[in-house]
Amino acid sequence: MAVGKNKRISKGKKGGKKKAADPFAKKDWYDIKAPSVFTTRNVGKTLVTRTQGTKIASEGLKHRVFEVSLADLQGGDEDHAYRKIRLRAEDVQGKNVLTNFWGMNFTTDKLRSLVRKWQTLIEAHVDVKTTDNYTLRMFCIGFTKRRPNQVKRTCYAQSSQIRQIRRKMREIMTAQATSCDLKELVQKFIPEMIGKEIEKATSSIYPLQNVFIRKVKILKAPKFDLGKLMEVHGDYSEDVGVKLERPADETMAEAPAEVVGA
Question: What residue spans carry the Basic residues bias annotation (predicted)?
Answer without folding.
Answer: 1-18
